[in-house]
UniProtKB/TrEMBL annotation, chain A:
Keyword Transport: yes
Record-given protein name: Phosphate ABC transporter ATP-binding protein
NCBIfam families, alphabetized: 3a0107s01c2
Sample GO molecular function, one term: phosphate transmembrane transporter activity
Domain ABC transporter: 23-264
InterPro entries: AAA+_ATPase (IPR003593), ABC_transporter-like_ATP-bd (IPR003439), ABC_transporter-like_CS (IPR017871), P-loop_NTPase (IPR027417), PstB-like (IPR005670)
Matches recorded under SUPFAM superfamilies: P-loop containing nucleoside triphosphate hydrolases
Gene3D superfamilies referenced in this protein's UniProt entry, alphabetically: P-loop containing nucleotide triphosphate hydrolases
GO terms for biological process, alphabetical: phosphate ion transmembrane transport
Keywords (A to Z) from UniProt: ATP-binding, Nucleotide-binding, Transport
Keyword hit for Nucleotide-binding: yes
Entry coiled-coil feature ranges: none
TrEMBL record, chain B:
Source organism, top-level taxon: Bacteria
GO molecular function terms attached to this record: phosphate transmembrane transporter activity
Stated family: Belongs to the binding-protein-dependent transport system permease family. CysTW subfamily.
PANTHER family found in the cross-reference section: PHOSPHATE TRANSPORT SYSTEM PERMEASE PROTEIN PSTA (PTHR43470:SF5), PHOSPHATE TRANSPORT SYSTEM PERMEASE PROTEIN PSTA-RELATED (PTHR43470)
PROSITE patterns to which the protein is assigned, alphabetical: ABC_TM1
Protein name: Phosphate transport system permease protein PstA
Transmembrane parts of this sequence: 29-49, 76-103, 123-143, 149-172, 193-215, 262-287
Main location as per UniProt: membrane
Biological processes annotated in GO: phosphate ion transmembrane transport
Secretion signal, residue range per the UniProt entry: none
Membrane topology type: Multi-pass membrane protein
Length: 269, 294
């Protein structure tokens, strides 16, 4: 099984015309001070895939996703080596400005984090910081993004009211809408439903099913059923290493590594 | 396994009485401390009000200093304080908030930053007369501002600067990191994040802390004495390079006169000063309440 996985991965690289990679991680290592948090990560993430990253707490899955848009830079004392290429461009290089990377790659966080502003202003924020002042464009983008995040019908009468008045699930969809407003290429989601109730979680999952038509999605999740439901690729992280990366079907039905099997069948983690 | 001797609940219940006695004694000690403080404050206020209130009048506010107590007024001091604060507030606010932003958002957390931080905190405890000497050396003599509004304003700004910095730092630190992450995650630069996310969130805290610091500058006397601010002034400053007098200087001057009438005038001056301070502190409370409710 592992062998075939390696083979298909090699094929992916050689036949890039068919399957375009958005992220290509090679020998990535990351340290928090002395703590070696990511060990020799090699991972290819394809366009329009929903890639789930699973693993027990402290396995480095959040660290990895935060490295993909360099949010990890905000943590003091982080060192990395190896490379991550976003569409063939080294994200650690000086020429690739982190502001550009984060514009192309949106992020949704663990806890809904809308700004203490109105719903409208939350979405307009991204446009304004990128110098878009045209009111009509902003208005249209706000509506389009809210529709894209399946929130428009619920909030259309009160988009100028504070975002803090929304429920947790609505706030998280607002954060997704805020991200969509910049028309990103990739959306990173760091346990987006861990702070939400089951109904809100379901709505977010349905939303991800719609978004995957247009965006490449990488989602860290604690919830294995969620990974099985929404993703088509799954990476299993353990102690800072990628134990296994394959199609979600294979990971959940026929894992090559016994540790993956133990984890998904609930023997640890 | 060693057998643990069982605790007897009868024994514990027997101790309750003595515990409750201790409880009551401690409570009355704290209550006595509060009463003592309040009484002193009330005595002080009553004395000042009874002494000064009869002298409060429109003339008192409208007249300049005079050798005759019945004609003496506080106009020059009130206007002088306003002039001085118009230098203190922008100077301390710009320097203080700027320093706080740099230390919290830009500076690396290393030994040098920690050293600067420690010195700022220590500076807040330096006696005001030392700041007076600093102002005398630098602003009055070196820069040649003389005993002007500018020299006093800069000196007072330096005096309150550490408090403004520390208060602003605390307000900036209280901004949730999730909000900053949201901003950075959308591709915002550091300055955009500071300007659009950090500052709007921190402004109420910065304003509250700063106003309390500024009210200290209004009441300080020692630095003004050291830099040689005159006490008998019968004119208003026309620009920041003019000489002036301030409320605490006027009060200080009146209390050091032999005639009892001047002591009463000083009390009236103190009432004005207290009024200004109450207004400023109320503004601080108002800002805090207004923004907390969002």
């Amino acid at each position: 099984m592992a062998l075939t996985a390696v083979k298909t991965m090699k094929n992916n690289q050689t036949t890039q015309t068919e399957e375009v990679l958005v992220y290509n991680t090679k020998n990535l290592n990351l340290w928090y001070g002395d703590h070696h948090a990511l060990k020799n990560i090699n991972l290819d993430i394809k366009e329009k895939d929903v890639t789930a990253i699973i693993g027990p707490s402290g396995c480095g899955k959040s660290t990895y996703i935060k490295t993909l848009n360099r949010m990890i830079d905000l943590v003091p004392g982080v060192k990395t080596n190896g490379s991550i290429e976003y569409r063939g461009r080294d994200i650690f290089s000086k020429e690739f400005l982190v502001e550009e990377l984060r514009t192309r790659v949106g992020m949704v966080f663990q806890k809904p984090n809308p700004f203490p502003k109105s719903i409208y202003e939350n979405i307009a924020f991204g446009l304004k910081i990128h110098g878009i002042k045209n009111k009509q464009i902003i208005n249209e983008t706000v509506e389009k993004s809210l529709r894209g995040a399946a929130l428009w019908d619920e909030v259309k009468d009160r988009i100028h009211e504070p975002a803090y008045g929304l429920s947790g699930g609505q706030q998280q969809r607002l954060c997704i809408a805020r991200c969509l407003a910049l028309e990103p290429d990739v959306i990173l989601m760091d346990e987006p439903t861990s702070a939400l109730d089951p109904v809100s979680t379901l709505k977010i999952e349905e939303l991800i099913q719609e978004l995957k038509e247009q965006y490449s999605i990488i989602i860290v999740t604690h919830n294995m059923q969620q990974a099985a439901r929404i993703s088509n690729k799954t990476a299993f992280f353990l102690n800072g290493e990628v134990v296994e990366f394959d199609s979600t079907e294979t990971i959940f039905n026929n894992p090559a590594d016994s540790r993956t099997d133990d984890y998904i069948s609930g023997r640890f983690g | 396994m060693e057998k643990i001797e069982r605790i007897k609940s009868e024994e514990m219940i027997g101790r309750i009485d003595s515990r409750l006695v201790k409880n009551k004694v401690v409570k009355s000690i704290f209550f006595a401390a509060t009463v003592f403080t309040s009484i002193i404050l009330i005595v002080l206020l009553v004395r000042i009000l009874t002494q000064g209130a009869p002298y409060l009048s429109w003339d008192f506010l409208q007249n300049f200093a005079s050798r005759r107590p019945e004609q003496a007024g506080i106009k020059a001091a009130v206007i002088g304080t306003v002039w001085m604060m118009s230098v203190v507030i922008p100077t301390a606010a710009i320097l203080g908030v700027g320093t706080a932003i740099y230390l919290e958002e830009y500076a690396k957390k290393n030994a040098i930053t920690r050293w600067i931080q420690m010195n700022i905190s220590n500076l807040a405890g330096v006696p005001s007369v030392v700041f007076g000497l600093l102002g005398l050396t630098i602003f009055v003599r070196l820069f040649g501002f003389g005993n002007s509004v500018l020299a006093a304003g800069f000196t007072m700004a330096l005096l309150v600067l550490p408090v403004v910095i520390v208060a602003s730092q605390e307000a900036i630190r209280a901004v949730p990191s999730e909000l900053k992450e949201a901003s950075y995650g959308l591709g915002a630069t550091k300055w955009q994040t500071i300007f659009r996310v950090v500052l709007p969130y921190a402004i109420p805290g910065i304003a509250t802390g700063s106003i309390l610091a500024f009210s200290r500058a209004i009441g300080e006397t020692a630095p003004l004495i050291v830099i040689g601010i005159p006490t008998f002034v019968a004119f208003l400053p026309s620009d920041v390079f003019d000489s002036f007098t301030a409320l605490p200087m006027q009060i200080y001057n009146w209390t050091s006169r032999p005639q009892i009438e001047f002591h009463n005038l000083a009390a009236a001056g103190i009432i004005i000063l207290l009024g200004v301070l109450i207004v400023m502190n109320s503004v601080a409370v108002w800002i805090r309440n207004r923004y907390q409710s969002r």
